[in-house]
Write a structure and sequence with these properties.
The chain is of the alpha+beta class and 322 residues long. The chain has one domain: Sulfite Oxidase, Chain A, domain 2, CATH 3.90.420. It is built from 8 helices and 12 strands. The strands form 2 sheets. Strands 3, 4, 7, 8, 9, 11 and 12 form a 7-stranded mixed β-sheet that branches. Strand 1 and strand 2 form a beta hairpin. The radius of gyration is 19 Å and the shape is globular.
Length: 322
């Protein structure tokens, strides 16, 4: 008798919308009939996808899906995901999608520096074309206790680490977003320590789940998603997944992220999802599923324990889950 055991991040079959309804992007991407289906699924209006048709790498999308990374749970409709976004560079509210269209994502240069064999700069288009893109279905859990499920396109961060050739002394990767307050008016708010900074250990950066995102929903990433390059670490709270990255610095010193800098008692370096450790102002035991009008129990490491738990063994008294 064959007994199917779901992975930790999967949900039982009875809780999921059939896979052919939510997970076949080609159904609503091809032809006029697909357009009608897309409207039914809530595809975002073109006003919040500005610039994607001009993306020099658009020929690479949709990328082949890696079936190793899948979810038995409905995908968040594109309309919901593209109009409910945290991107503090453009405002502290969720309705930043239109404001984010002011961001110019070309030309865009990535700096690799710090403790590497040879520091260098590379254009985003050259970087993307050096990598093999694939689609992965991931869960995203925000520290604010809401969640989404998203079809990201991008490449493994370990491939970027290999390209950077860090020295053995490098223990962390510090990442930094763009700085342009004339375009991103949220950066004029002086009480935030701009630019946005985040960091990972080398083990986290090279974990199989850690992903550099360049697209979503079968096309180049919308600007409000953090185009043209953002991080996804699906077992951590969403604020760790820094957007619109311009610099990777390999270092022996632990980076101080923006939110940890602002309030370290609420937003720590590790930020691993844990339903048993509450935020100082709300419970983390459950999450509000955007687009579905329901709450579900939150899982340790957002359901990805199998892939990541070993990295956090024997950590002593260090607080990992806040």
């Amino acid at each position: 008798m064959l007994i199917k055991r779901n992975k930790g991040w999967e949900l039982p079959e009875h809780m999921a919308t059939p896979e052919d309804v939510f997970l076949n992007r080609r159904t609503f991407m091809a032809g006029a009939g697909a357009t009608a289906a897309g409207i039914g699924l809530g595809i975002a209006p073109s006003s919040v996808w500005a610039g994607q048709d001009d993306d020099p790498t658009k020929d690479l999308y949709p990328a082949k899906r890696n079936e190793k990374y899948k979810i038995i749970r409905p995908l968040t409709p594109e309309k919901v995901n593209s109009t409910y976004n945290n991107f503090y560079e453009f405002g502290s509210h969720k309705s930043i999608s239109k404001a984010a269209q002011a961001l110019q994502t070309r030309p865009w240069e990535i700096t690799i520096d710090g403790e590497v064999e040879t520091p260098f700069k590379i254009s985003i288009d050259d970087l993307i074309r050096k990598m093999t893109l694939e689609e992965r279905l991931y869960r995203l859990r925000c520290v604010e206790a809401w969640s989404m499920t998203i079809p990201w396109t991008g490449f493994a961060m370990r491939d970027l680490v290999d390209l950077a050739k860090p020295l053995s002394s490098a223990k962390y990767v510090r990442m930094e977003t763009f700085m342009n307050p004339e375009v991103a008016t949220g950066q004029k708010q002086g009480w935030y320590p701009w630019p946005y900074v985040e960091g990972l250990t080398m083990a986290e950066a090279t974990n199989e789940l850690t992903m550099m995102v360049t697209g979503a929903y079968g096309k180049p990433a919308a600007k409000q998603f953090g185009a043209p390059l953002r991080l996804i670490v699906p077992w951590k709270y969403g604020f760790k997944s820094i957007k619109s990255i311009v610099k990777f610095t390999f270092t022996s010193k632990r980076p101080l992220g923006m939110w940890e800098n602002i309030q370290g008692r609420e937003y720590g370096f590790w930020a691993n999802v844990n339903p048993k450790v509450n935020h100082r102002r709300w419970s983390q035991a459950s999450e509000r599923v955007l687009g579905e009008n329901k709450r579900i129990p939150t899982q340790l490491f957002n359901g990805y324990s199998e892939q990541v738990a070993d990295m956090y063994k024997d950590m002593g008294t260090e607080k990992l889950f806040y």
